[in-house]
Write a structure and sequence with these properties.
Elements: E1 2-3, H1 4-13, E2 27-31, E3 34-40, E4 50-57, H2 74-94, E5 107-108, E6 115-116, E7 122-124, E8 128-135, E9 139-140, E10 143-144, H3 146-164, H4 172-191, E11 197-202, E12 209-211, E13 214-217, E14 232-237, E15 241-249, E16 252-257, H5 263-272, E17 276-277, E18 286-288, E19 293-295, E20 303-306, E21 324-326, H6 331-344, E22 349-353, H7 359-362, H8 366-371, H9 386-393, E23 396-400, E24 413-418, E25 421-424, H10 426-435, E26 454-458, E27 471-474, E28 478-481, E29 484-487, H11 497-508, H12 519-533, H13 536-539, H14 551-559, E30 564-568
Parallel strand pairs: 1-2, 16-23, 16-24, 19-22, 22-23
Antiparallel strand pairs: 2-3, 3-4, 4-8, 5-8, 6-17, 7-8, 9-10, 11-15, 11-18, 12-13, 14-15, 20-21, 24-25, 26-30, 27-28, 28-29
Helix pairs in contact: 1-3, 2-3, 2-4, 12-14
Length: 572
Amino acid sequence: MSTHHHLSQTLLNLDRQSYKAYKQLQGTYTFPGFTLIIDHVQGDPFAAPSRVRVQVPQQGAHGAGFPPDLVRSPSRHLALRDYLHRQVYRAASQGRSQRGSGKSGLISIASPVQQVLDRNAVLLDDHQIEVRFVVGLPAQGRSILGRQAAALLCDDIPKLVARSLRYDVLDADQIRQHVETVEDADALRSHLQERGLVAFIADGAILPRRSGIDDRPLDVDSIPFQSPPSLRVELTCPNRGPVTGMGIPRGISLIVGGGYHGKSTLLNAIAKGVYNHIPGDGRERVVTEPTAMKIRAEDGRSIVRVNISPFINHLPQGRSTQHFSSDNASGSTSQAANTIEAVQAGAHTLLVDEDTSATNFMIRDRRMQALIAKDQEPITPFLDKIRQLYQDYGVSTLLVMGGSGDYFDVADTVIAMTQYAPQEVTQQARAIAHEYANQRCPEGGQHFGVLTPRVPLVQGLGGRDDRRIKVTVRDLDEIQIGHETIDLSAVEQLVDPAQLRTIGLAIAALHDTPPRASLATVVQDWIDRLQTQGFDGLTGYPTGDCAMVRPIDFAAALNRLRSLHINEGDRP
């Protein structure tokens, strides 16, 4: 272990040498109040930046000094890590400067989002705080700029630590609000099952977002959410105390209303309610049961041996749909597969928006039934299976529907949105269904159908035994693993590229899985491994660019792997 003085002198001595001479910096250096670890040095100024860590002791004269009360529960522990991550990101952004070619002078940590994620950018225990980030070691062309490098590592990083990782220089009230907000959200979510709810939207919540690419709250003309009296429930938080809001019960719930009145906005807020949100987001007390999965049509996706026969059967030429595969699925077959896969992966709630659904998957009205006989129509609409899905498998559905009143016949709860204000209209919907009796014939039979177990075999990802498969993430849309690309643009509840990186690294290592395990078991085993061993087990070295994913989203990615092979049941 060397001192910061030694590091500074080494950098000055490297001035104007070839960039590869930076490699000798790899190691550990002591600074007043923290330790700097340089894990990996980039090969040239245009390559991926160098990976570094700082470790700040909790106690002592130069310790971080965060009170134990801030980490007394798992929720608070995660929230404090998240808060510190945001402070480091802000300090790094404010202190950013260009010092030469390429990425020279860069100090960067994973960008935070509105959601609070379990990620590996900041780690915390009783003894120390560890922060992982990257730096761009300065160069002009491919020549080392030693003085600028010394300023970066020996001046800028100590300033970053002093501004973002010391309790006495941070806003104590803001820290407490952050950890209490997250702890309260976890408490609210824990009450859902015992109250028979799939989601809860607190009174006063701000649901609209600035845009489809800006997840921050709309700061003008936003109407605070207010529950209709008939659906209002009161839940208790450990910090805020009693909170009132709209509880959405298990079963089949419809969100109806005119266009642009807030139906999809409400559904999207509920979809993101599987995560906790930062103070000021507007959705801090919008919580959803953790397995809720948003389902949509997905033209062109790959499907590998999924039993979609509950929805689609008797194809022309006698083709079976009990082991259905397609390299280029249609809207209806993709939505059928997405539904079956989600239920098999453990979803207890499905979230569906008619705007992103295949019409022929959702509904077949009486006139179409009269024109096209059932024996000529392979598709059984979701309308005729939604009740069986709940009765046979306990899977609730929350559905945005503005174009078909046929769903009134199967709904347990109907919520109408008018200018972003919800009203419960269940009795009115039932009266309308009674007055305008539906003459269509139910086509779904008596039961939902069989969910066939699937055993995954991952093949053909490329790479050699002695070399890790390269994983590349493109925003929230794609993961490239070796030579294969997984399109995740339709898996809408992934919120951070760090989650996609975790998925990609885990799939790249799936050669390590039991040969006869079901897909759901494989996924849960990997999630359990991440929770016990941490993310470094995926990479083999310390990084700060991974975040935890839900098992159901991991399963969704694995199901879209085009090189996936599936066996049914326990057959080899």
